[in-house]
Design a protein that fits this description.
- This protein has about 525 residues and is an alpha/beta fold.
- It folds into 3 domains: about 240 residues, 2-enoyl-CoA Hydratase, Chain A, domain 1, CATH 3.90.226; about 190 residues, 2-enoyl-CoA Hydratase, Chain A, domain 1 (Alpha-Beta Complex); about 35 residues, no CATH class.
- It has 21 helices and 17 strands.
- The strands form 3 sheets. Strands 10, 11, 12, 13, 14, 15, 16 and 17 form an 8-stranded mixed beta sheet that branches. Strands 1-2-3-4-5-7-9 form a 7-stranded mixed beta sheet, sandwiched between helices.
- β3, α4 and β4 form a beta-alpha-beta unit.
- α4 runs parallel beside α5 and α17 crosses α19.
- The radius of gyration is 26 Å and the shape is elongated.
């Protein structure tokens, strides 16, 4: 064969792979408001940076009509590229080819790119848009899922793993995203569920739509699986790029520091008006976070799930930091099952990837009641204690107002080895709130008083002056410094500069056993 013929053959094969399932299926994909696998990679990666791997791989199945069936790229595009000049490995399922279904070759392409990402030490981003396991390939398809799950687990805590759901993700396929670190979804076109609507109807006689069963709205507000949701594919991928800017390539690197564009000692006078003097009054803790962060920016995660706790990434002095904050604007910032799960997993991610954690405390305690107790608040609530206790990254804590009881301990207290505990003058640190404490301790005295309500007010004032302030804790060394709110940013920047080289060693063990 002449060289020209060889090149023509190569180009024809390459063009067929790039064309995917063909123009009609591409148009059908666009008609659903979805981009194609390659269009998504074009938006995610820096222009011209994508290098494809395994482009010519395809299935070898012969049963159930698969003999001779064309499947360009076997329904998945894999390779590597850059985001803001930093290396990432990617796979993007192609719904136009066999519905993006996962067969033996499809899984082999994904596992190959996962192996490379782990060897090189670079983030892995998977874009899911698949009808599930390829039925025609039987157990070979199931084997493929198992090999992916194994690699997800081995890569956990070594490289960041980000999944972008941009179509259906059903059955066993959902466990790969769940084993990763972050999940992004798109409104109206993303779905995640173990069993689809038809199975639910057959087994339980329940009529439910895909959106109601496992749409982006469900996973961003009820299950907490979706860390962020975009209005369309383009917005979702933009948010993935933004997240990557906070993350190191792997667990042996420090997070990427950017040149400082904000004054390191900028005074935060606006905290005077953001934080109400009345401890019973709510406020949005995100405003506190933005007040101290570089350029007042904050990349929040899971914003619509367990809203009584806020998590996300910000920068201080150009350095990425993880933020965990009670939110008095929702349920008074109380800790419950969902906030414990949300906060503990995020702290553990930050600890795995060398990202300092700053905690803002304003909580009346753990949520009381039979619903929480019977659903397991004890074992779930213990997770946040566990996460902070095992963390070796720099930990700074700011007690804004209420820090009561077990929640005071759990929210990165000095007793869990926080490196710096700051308190604002509005802080109240005690076993419980002043009114409740007085009603318990002085119940007989209050009952026998001429004016019980007035006596309660007097006792509450005395309790607050004695205990419900930051100075008793400061006198014991449990609070390092009581700071003027206007100096909070400068104090936190100084903390990071001093503790950036922190080294701490845990006891020698295979691994701990975290509460479930």
């Amino acid at each position: 064969m002449a060289i020209d013929d060889s090149l023509r053959d190569l180009r024809a094969r390459t063009d067929a792979v790039v064309a995917g399932g063909g123009e009609a299926r591409v148009q059908a994909q666009h008609g659903k408001g979805k981009l194609t696998a390659r269009e998504r990679l074009d938006l995610l990666l820096d222009p011209g940076s994508f290098h494809e791997l395994g482009a010519l791989m395809t299935h070898r199945a012969v049963d159930f009509g698969m003999n001779g069936k064309e499947a360009p790229g076997d329904g998945v595009v894999t390779g590597y590229g850059t985001v803001d000049g930093r290396l990432v490995f990617v796979f993007s399922q192609d719904f136009t080819v066999l519905g993006g279904s996962l067969g033996e070759a499809h899984a082999a392409k994904i596992t190959a790119v996962m192996d490379r990402a782990l060897k090189v030490g670079a983030p892995l981003i998977g874009i899911n848009d698949s009808g599930g396991a390829r039925i025609q390939e039987g157990v070979d398809a199931l084997k493929g899922y198992g090999e992916i799950f194994y690699r997800n687990t081995m890569a956990s805590g070594v490289i960041p793993q980000i999944t972008v759901i941009m179509g259906p993700c059903a059955g066993g396929a959902v466990y790969s995203p769940a084993l990763g670190d972050f999940i992004f979804m798109t409104e109206r076109t993303s779905f995640m569920f173990i069993t689809g609507p038809q199975v639910v109807k057959t087994v339980l006689s329940q009529d439910v739509s895909a959106e109601e069963l496992g749409g982006a709205g469900v996973h961003q507000s009820r299950t907490g699986l979706a860390h962020r949701v975009g209005q369309d594919d383009a917005e979702t991928l933009h948010m993935v790029r933004e997240l990557l800017g906070f993350l190191p390539a792997n667990n042996l690197e420090d997070p990427p520091v950017r040149p400082l564009t904000d004054s390191h000692d900028r005074e935060t006078h606006d905290l005077y008006s953001i934080i109400p003097q009345d401890p019973a009054k709510g406020y949005d803790v995100a405003e506190v976070i933005r007040a101290v962060a570089d350029d007042r920016s904050f990349f929040e995660l899971q914003p619509n799930f367990a809203r009584n706790l806020v998590i996300g990434f910000a920068r201080l002095d150009g350095m990425p930091v993880g933020i965990v904050a009670n939110n008095p604007g929702h349920l008074s910032g109380v800790l419950d099952i969902d906030t414990s799960d949300k906060g503990s997993r995020f702290v553990r991610f930050c600890d795995a990837f060398n990202i300092p954690v700053i905690t803002f405390v304003d909580t009346p305690g753990y949520m009381p009641g039979t619903d929480q107790e019977h659903a397991g608040i004890i074992r779930h609530g213990a997770k946040i204690l566990y996460a902070y206790s095992e963390a070796t990254v720099p930990l700074a804590t700011v007690i804004v107002r209420k820090a009561y009881g077990g929640a005071y301990i759990a929210m990165a207290s000095k007793h869990l080895r926080s490196d710096l505990v700051l308190a604002l003058p509005t802080a109240e640190i005690a076993v419980m709130g002043p009114k409740g404490a007085c009603e318990v301790v002085f119940r007989r005295e209050i009952a026998g008083a001429e004016d019980p309500e007035q006596r309660v007010e007097e006792l509450v004032k005395d309790y607050r002056d004695t205990f419900a302030n930051p100075y008793m804790a400061a006198s014991r060394g449990y609070v390092d410094e009581v700071v003027d709110p206007k100096n909070l940013r400068a104090e936190l920047v100084n903390f990071l500069r001093v503790h950036g080289s922190k080294r701490e060693k845990l006891p020698n063990k295979k691994h701990g056993v975290m509460p479930t």
